[in-house]
């Protein structure tokens, strides 16, 4: 099975990160696969002795589990066990058939259940980018989550949000009717995600954005039309007003050129649970800028400490 040992993108990404957030010999994750239905889900596992809690990180449609090392390393150093799965279509996960977003939600629940069975400790979900809604949906369907953290929370059922996050205004206006029609006749056909979503805005550093968009394991991936159609029409089990099962933290980048905080607030403001929001200063959608990254770490650790079971 392929893993990240011979992958160059995550290695080249390190130079864009503050030194304290880079992977080193002492912070490298253990790699392995877990079976979920007919797939082998790749896992980056940042292990610590006597972990305070477990944090499962969900990537979005421009990343993979290894690219989340920028925050996983700091959580590990602070005493938290961190799990970074690759969802099918991305990273090193092995899969077959046509992948839809509904399968991602099922994977999220299965991955969570797997680690709940491993040890009786607090578990948090942390979703970055589109992983934010994925974390919310997983928490909605699964019990005993201590908290959800997201960098954005986008309800793509809202046409305004689809329009604002698409690759261009024409795609934003036509995405739902076009993909709905195409899904019926050609749902298995792949499209580059960067042709659909505004992937060039994934990072404020243009060199890093270019690196990721060329990566066939992250922003340069092609996905089935069925995947995009289902992602734009998610089936939420619990609407935000009724979501009270666990606390929610939104740590939104302040200079996000892809998903402005106003888009996340449409959903966040409706949440019925205990919630808090913090803006990461000078941080882009992929929040690697040092000041915002330090704030991300600080807010996450405060939240984890407040809501983990002692």
TrEMBL record:
Protein name (Swiss-Prot/TrEMBL): Alpha/beta hydrolase
Organism per entry: Kineothrix sedimenti
The Serine aminopeptidase S33 domain, residue ranges: 50-290
Keywords: Hydrolase
Alphabetized GO MF terms: hydrolase activity
